[in-house]
Amino acid sequence: MKTYTYTESQKLFQRATKVIPCGIYGHLSPAPLIPADAYPFYVSKALGSRFWDVDGNEFIDYMCAYGPMVMGYNYKPVDDAAARQYAQANCVTSPGPVMVELAEKLVDVVSIADWAFFAKNGNDVTTYASMVARKATGRKKMVLIKGGYHGVAPWAQTFGHHGILEEDGQNTIRIPWNDFEAFKKVVDQHPNDIAGFMATPYHHPTFVDNEMPAPGYWEKVETLCKAKGIVLIVDDIRCGFRLDMRGSHEYFGFKPDLVCFCKAIGNGYPISALVGTDALKNDAAKVFYTGSYWFSAAPMAAALATLNEMEAINGPKVMTEFGEKLKKGLVDVAANHGYDLKVTGHPAMPYLRITDDPTLMLHQNWCAECTKRGAFFSSHHNWFVSTAHTREDLDRTLEIADDAFLAIKNNNE
Questions:
Q1: Mean pLDDT of the 89-118 span
Q2: Could you say which of 298, 313, 328 is where a domain stops?
Q3: Residues 240 and 305 in one domain
Q4: pTM value?
């Protein structure tokens, strides 16, 4: 099977390093792509479940822009809705009616939502959620999960990251995932000083197996939060509208006070949302928090269309079914070559790991070989599937995976 080369990507990256810090910074940086020369750095076009790099190579995309692509790239109903709004007005002195319509839609769809607030990035709404929790309770401390990710604001990062001060995290307490007793101990140790508990619906850190909540975990957390007046916040930025249209908390059977959304809400258009219960509405109204482009109407129109389209086809069901087939197919292909491929997390956003090599180098090499053949795989992060992935994509992916296993086996002999 032919493997790709990336001459133009490499040339463009060399130009970029002269004028952009790191050339490509943040989560799209080449740094975690190992080996980096197996991956494309720049995209020229995208459609459906696929993208093409600047060298003309075609990829079935299993990162979906790290989550925002849920209906498919250049999905016409969403793009048309945004275009109609652009033609009328986008970033103007006052918000457009679509802001009200989108808020009404979220209140109608998300089970705990009585109101909605809009921003641009996931980081915007996780930070806003922490501010609302502190305003509502008059308390300082936030409890987070070790290894959890809630954005790049200093309060959400850990000391040791460049630019982060030790005092930035003085009111942030981190506890292990699925350890209710650890949460209870922290609450007892800091009586009347815990403003909020924030976590993802299930634990999906990088480089390690993802973990579902233990039976009864969320129910016990919810009960304790209510008893102690702690605001329960779900960071549904990756999982939102992939597990359940009503919010991932419904998938796991509990009721938070605030839910943060981003990524899949707008199919790639820049928008995020915080939704909450009526009990926190007045507190949210009193927290001043805004941005120059947060009222842009076109992304709101795109988000409204995305939610409508997802509802119409039962998007979570479509992605789950495809994810299950992908999981089974890849596990079977691996087994045929004598490898154990472990899949954790939800089928719509699985994390994969070849267990035969604890260093992960074997897994990194396999993901690289797959990518060089046209299936874009990450070795360190959970993947994403979309409603645009097809049976043809699945069949081609399994062919690529099979050939990549042959390649790493030959390389190790």
A1: 98
A2: 313
A3: yes
A4: 0.97
